[in-house]
Specification:
mainly alpha, two-stranded antiparallel ribbon, 2 strands
Amino acid sequence: MTPKDLNQDEFDSYYQRYIDKLSTSISLKEGFAIGQKQVISFFKTIPIKKHGYRYAPQKWSIKEILQHLIDTERIFMYRCFRIARKDKTPLAGFDQGIYMAPSNADKKTMESLLNEYSTTRQSSIFLLNSLSENDLKCIGNANGSAMSARAAAFTIIGHEIWHTEIINKKYLDK
C-alpha cells in the first residue's frame, strides 16, 4: 500500500499538502520505519542553542515542533485505529495551538522528546502491523470530513516531512 493507492475521497483536501510530500513508491509501513530514522537523525543534528529558537514571536520553538509531531501522531493514529476498527462515530478535530502550552515542550530535553517520539512511533508501527489492508481502507469521519485509516497514517509521515522542511528553511542557518 503506497500513497498512490489513496483516492481523493479518502481525506480532506487540506491534507493533500502532506500526502504530496511522500514518495509514491514507499509503502506505508516502510514510510513509518524510514521516517522514524530520519526524524531522529534530523533532530539530533540540531545544535542545542537552536532548540528553543523561534524565527518569529508567535512561532513554536524547535522542541515545540517535535512535541507537535508527537501529539499529531498520537491523534492521527487514534483516528486510524478507530476508523480501521469500523467505528463510525465522527471524530472531533483538534486545535493544535492549545496543545502546546500544557505540553511544556521547552522544559523537556531533546533526548526525552526523542525518546517520547520513538515510543510513540513504535506504538504506531505495532498498530499498523496489526491491521490488514482492508482495515486500512475503511473510511470514517474525522473533523467533519471523510478519512480512511490509511490516509490518517500517511498524513503523519508527510506531516513530519513538512515540518522538517520548515525547520530547515526558517530555523537553521544553512
